[in-house]
Amino acid sequence: MSGAEADVLVVGGGMGGVAAALAALRRGRTVVLTEETDWLGGQLTSQGVPPDEHPWIEQFGATRSYRRLRTAIRDHYRTWYPLTRESREATDLNPGRGTVSRLCCEPRVAAAVLAGMVGPYLSAGRLTIRYLHRPVAADVDGDRVTGVTFAGPDGEPFHVRAAYVLDATELGDLLPLAGIEHVTGFESAAETGEPSAPAQAQPGNMQAFSWVFAVEHRAGEDHTVDRPKDYAFWRDYRPPFWPDRLLSLVAPDPRTLEPKPRVFVPHASSEPVVADQSRDPGDTDLWVFRRILCREVFEPGFAVSDVVVVNWPQIDYLPGPLIGVTEDERARHLQGARDQALSMLYWLQTEAPRPDGGTGWPGLRLRPDVMGTADGLAKSPYIRESRRIRARRTIVEHDLSLAVRGEHGAVAYHDTVGVGMYRIDLHPSTGGDNYIDVASCPFQIPLGALLPVRVRNVLAAGKNLGTTHITNGCYRLHPVEWNAGEAAGALAAHCLDNRLEPAQVHEDPAALERFQAELVADGFELAWPQVRGY
Questions:
Q1: How confident is the model at residue 166, as a pLDDT?
Q2: pLDDT tens for each residue of 101-125
Q3: Which one GO biological process term can you cite for this protein (predicted)?
Q4: Which distant-in-sequence residues (6+ apart) come within 8 Å of 429 by Cβ?
């Protein structure tokens, strides 16, 4: 068995994991970072999802390092791509002109930028990254985790010892391995008091995950994929709460649940868009919704086609979750999600209605290069819901619901370590729920939500922080996950520097104030200006 030692071990290289590692490294600490795929970035890269952000992101509402990431992505396009003059000079360059985000970009570009951000620390020898490694065991000594063992591609176990262990995995995989108290699925209203919670807890009821893919359209060509073997099942599949077959252009409006027709016509529009989900969720035109490369942004003739990410409700996988099931069931669900995604593609190519009265867009072509895979699907499924720690502070719906809080705004946490904003956006679930979509107020991230109730040297650094099933719906997005991970990495380094434990920082007002001052100096925003939720 090979091994390593570090001040901080970050398990998982998604948005939170990268931010956590960078925060500890900036403070002079050594870090081992592990990642199950061969890309850093999680939902932004290996899962293929453009960043879901609030409408003020260009001005405020994120950490300095997250802004640096966004700027670096734009600079990558300005440096290496033949942009039009207008695009090059645009301070808010949006390479995809998608309506979901003011920065829709290719996953491979985001992955390259993240690799560049960690590169100096690799050169300095203070960062070790183990790609294609997943945790399989944890060493536990009382209320501490002293080491973690990983399985890698060469078959040899890899063991890491560290003073602090940060769980930034997509599903909270370290929690059961280390016996850390956690929760899954839907909590009951009796436990949380949340208006949208059910009467009884539903630990197996989780948001659907999705296996996304990227396509372009080449008119006059035929790129139809082989008919998936389970296509007949997915073509006819209709959840009981859905207005039509899942493979169709009709789906519920997430906010009203009324049937809402969508439009899918390649290259029907190339006009500049304004991504502002406070005014319009932007999901009516599916070609534009998650477009990550718009050919009009570039010099004429450079790009034959736009490139669009298919991450729509039609590929939300509902038959079962990835947590709390056997390995065989998990493998079946993963394969099922891939089959569903390919069935959606085949339906678009062969059966989707066209404005001219015909059916199908055979010119749709997978873009494996964009996703960094051989088949054109993302490297990993898009995970919306993780195991969540039993935390010192659990964030509940009525802390930030606009209907509950109104003009008072979200609850102000004395232990804030960052801010975020998104509607409480719960996709259809494995338990048979339709969308739960609740207006929210701009909120804070409390330090107590990163701290397990018992274990002393493990911190949540991703979607596994102390939210509920409901509030996970707004704390799961890109900038919030980054902020949470960055705060966890900063806290681990701060505790090592000051010979403190996280609980001491949390419980001592003077110690907490010193840590918060350090965060502010490092570019964290701990409170919002006067803005109204949506």
A1: 99
A2: 999 999 999 999 999 999 999 999 9
A3: NAD+ biosynthetic process
A4: 186, 205, 206, 207, 208, 318
- pLDDT tens readout for residues 513-522: 999 999 999 9
3-state SS assignment for residue 274: coil
Strands 182-183 and 213-217: unpaired
Asked whether residue 25 is domain-assigned, the answer is yes
Query: And the tokens for 184?
Result: 């899954």
Give Cα separations from 161 to 30, 124, 149 (angstroms).
12, 20, 9
Q: Compute CA 400 distance to the chain's CA centroid, rounded to the nearest angstrom.
A: 20
The DSSP secondary-structure symbol of 208 reads P
Q: Are strands 388-389 and 443-446 parallel, antiparallel or unpaired?
A: unpaired
Element spanning 345, H or E: helix 327-350
Q: The tokens 């296996």 sit on which residue?
A: 211
Q: Please name which of 403, 450, 396, 386 lies closest in space to residue 209, comparing C-alpha atoms.
A: 386
Q: How many CB atoms within 10 Å of residue 250?
A: 14
Specify the CATH number for the domain of residue 411: 3.50.50.60
Q: Write the secondary structure of 436-460 as one string of H (helix), E (strand) and C (coil).
A: EEECECCEEEEHHHHCECCCCCEEE
**Residue 105, in any domain of the structure:** no
Write out the residue range of the structural domain in which residue 9 sits. 2-81+112-187+387-522
CA-to-CA separations, 517 to 369, 388, 484, 491, in angstroms, rounded: 43, 28, 16, 12
CB 216 within 8 A of CB 306: yes
CB 427 within 8 A of CB 207: yes
Residues in the chain, overall count: 534
Please give the single-letter amino acid code of residue 25: L
389: pLDDT strictly greater than 80: yes
Query: Model pTM?
Result: 0.98
Do both 357 and 398 map to the same domain?
no
Look at residue 68 in the predicted model and tell me its pLDDT: 98
Each residue's pLDDT tens digit, 198-224: 999 999 999 999 999 999 999 999 999
Residue-level pLDDT at 274: 80
Query: At 436, phi and psi to the nearest 5?
Result: -120, 115
Tally of domains in the chain: 2
